[in-house]
Amino acid sequence: MKRFLILSGWIITAAFTFPVYAADDLEGRVGRLERIFENQSGSDLLLQVQRLQAEMQELRGLVETQKLNIDKLQRQQRDQYLDIDARLGTNHSTAPQTPLPNSVVDASGTSTDEPAPAPVAAPIAPPSTGPIGIPALPQPETQSGNERDAYATAFALLKERNYDAAKTAFTQLLQSYPQGEFTDSAQYWLGETNYVQRDYPAALEAFNQLIQNHPNSPKIANALLRIGSIQYDQKAFAQAKISLEQLISRFPNSTEARLARSRLERINDNAP
Fold this sequence. Notes:
Layout: H1 2-90, E1 104-105, E2 111-112, H2 140-159, H3 163-176, H4 183-196, H5 200-213, H6 220-233, H7 237-250, H8 255-270
Antiparallel strand pairs: 1-2
Helix pairs in contact: 1-2, 2-3, 3-4, 4-5, 5-6, 6-7, 6-8, 7-8
């Protein structure tokens, strides 16, 4: 009987203690599973972050490559413009007119077919003392030659990317020959020099002076396009739109007008 009571007590004690041990073991397993899950989640997040960082680095490399290609194309385009303008500059001046060898002009201004006399050196005329009293003007060939040399020097500095010296040379040319044969070209390339140096206020001033002082210059379309581009880059979209529309109105069939239309499309797409 005594043994039975002892055995029963053991059975009852085991019955009550077993659920406690089972519950403790289950809670431990759940804790371990949670820790494993947390570790796996952290590892997955770390892998995702590393993968995103690698993709971002690759995209940065692509962007940098594209930027270098764009810069190279812009330099090539600028060099082409400079080369074209240099070629045009060499033929910018008109050839001096000489009388035909078999004709002369009489006092009344009519041409005759008399043989022309042998050419002789023309003496330098002193200041006129006649009734009109207008002093003799400088020899145009000498003045044009000096201006041409100054323009060629300034342009060579620009081609060499010596922008500070080129800006000084163009400015001096404009001061020495305010109504010269190359004044409009010098004014335009002064604006381009400032633009390359990102001195946008000075560039706008130079281009606007070209438009105001030389309304018939062949470089007006380029100046208007450059003004619109600067205003666009400065996010002055309303002003850029006016400049580009003016360019299209004045030069509808030009290459500059086509570029202006493309820029206007961007402005309209970004309009609120």
